[in-house]
Amino acid sequence: DTDAQILMRFKGSLSNGKALNDWGSESSLCSWTGLLCRKNQTFYGLRLEHMEMGGKIDIETLVELPTLVSFSVINNTFEGPMPEFKKLVSLRALFLSNNKFSGDIPDDAFEGMRKLKRVFLAENGFTGPIPKSLANLPRLLDLDLRGNGFGGNIPDFQQQDFRVFNLSNNQLEGQIPESLSNKFPSSFAGNEGLCGKPLSSCKIGGNESRSLEPNLDKPQGKNHRILITVIIVVAVVAFSSIVALLFIQKHRRKRFKPRTLPTQGNSQQSVGFKESHSIDMTVDLKDGDGELNFVREDRGGFDLHELLSASAAVLGSGSFGSTYKAMILNGPTVVVKRFRHMNNVGKQEFSEHMQRLGTLTHPNLLPLAAFYYRKEDKFLVYDFAENGSLASHLHGRNGSVLTWSSRLKIIKGVARGLAYLYENFPGKIVPHGHLKSSNVVLDHSFEPKLNEYGLVEVMNKSHAQKFMAAYKAPETSKFGRPNVKSDVWCLGILILEVLTGKFPANYLRHGKGGNNSDLATWVDSVVREEWTGEVFDKDILGTRNGESEMLKLLRIGMFCCKWSVENRWDWNEAVAKIEEVKENDGEDDSSSCYYVSEEDFNSRTATEDEFSFSVTNG
Ligand SMILES: Nc1ncnc2c1ncn2[C@@H]1O[C@H](COP(=O)(O)OP(=O)(O)OP(=O)(O)O)[C@@H](O)[C@H]1O
Q: Which Gene Ontology cellular component terms are annotated (predicted)?
């Protein structure tokens, strides 16, 4: 039989298979509902999820599909004992969660499934011990048995290094095996009889000893004392090893230590990684909208399941939601940014907008790879940038120092990326809309990439007004909306931030009756009243032969931050001037500092002609 005939036979044993009505209508299997195909159109899996389907899972028929490696019937109404999946020896992923399967699973149920990596049996009615054959699967990475009635002791999973692991809400008991003591306590929650690391220690002696391994005899008298001594010695050794391990880990991960940026309004922005188990997103797949939509051809190779169960680290929580770094097994490392404030936009409009963003390609734009849409919850998937954000380098305490030359390279890249956006979105008021240092990320060679561009249109207006960078330009408080030069304002603030090392949010305007200040006003006042040297970040201040070019860039920043929109430069003027800035002024002067005459620095009111100011050596 052909694969098509075999699949039709398989369908015949299902009840309520209405969702599969299109099976058999098309000659290409890959267009049938629920069939997973590779790029070369070879069939590799069945994903029959949320279809209110039941009946028999006919394993004898599935055996005839040699290319089947992934099988999912998540969220259906299948019941009875677990079918004999071990006959599908090539299976790599098995998803049976959220059904009504029940009964004990034989100990050898997974025997011989040497390729099996992912087992999801959560939220069923399985009982009895966890089958020992699971612990013998050499490649098992994900195991989710939560929400069943599994009982007895947990087998020793010595061969596995789990990525997803969850045994919560069962009836397991006894000591947690040492091999699992490094898991999160939440993986074992809701099993009253369990004890040992990472839960509370097991009580010994008296009636409490029931929480130890049940077959551990209770010795009396002398034997008892010997046993207690042995346990204490083992515990002390184990404790010291764990402390030593933690100490080593702490030092190895020093650079991933969470950091906190200065506050912006009431919100804290964190930089650096916090450890996490998997992406904490409650994606309700019942909607049928559970598709990950790729927006460019050169990205892909993973699906929503793989993304959500990838091992993940929280990068931070911005004004729109959390951002995760996700390391997909046998796939790329990506960044998932969740947006909670795009409720007013319909699916069609949203998809079209994302497809449009997906066509943008420039070395200084972070490519959008995919999006996920549900009415009240959306997320975007971007490439991961190895060197984190510009903000973390400027303000984090990770000890990194950006030289003048790398800062200039970054500003030039930002300007080019912004120019590309202005050119490709000619009708848009603010082509970027959220340009700020945490939205400039740096790749492996510190090439800057703009992030979170082109999102103003799909954002709720009230949220945009409150949080998006373009709305912080002065014209917004006057006219209630940004102007075509508002992105230039953001570019100017970014330039001043890069040169001064100061965090702009600490210099925010406070509107009516407030102190009416911003970073540009501060720079202006320092330059006017004091001494230019004070304005630059101390890490670049002494740069040999760079000061006059640094001053040039400072001046450009000030022109981009003109309060009056008429006096503010256009994006193309700003970009052209930035391109002219050199790393080095070419003069071989050994002095480490330059002073600029005060009148050169009337920049808030200066005209463009005054741009070529003189630099006098101290
Ligand atoms: N693609 C990426 N590669 C590496 N780091 C990233 C990437 N995207 C975001 N980050 C970093 O993750 C952290 C959290 O980002 P997030 O976008 O949630 O917050 P934010 O940029 O501070 O605020 P906002 O939500 O207003 O944009 C920031 O330090 C950001 O620079």
A: membrane
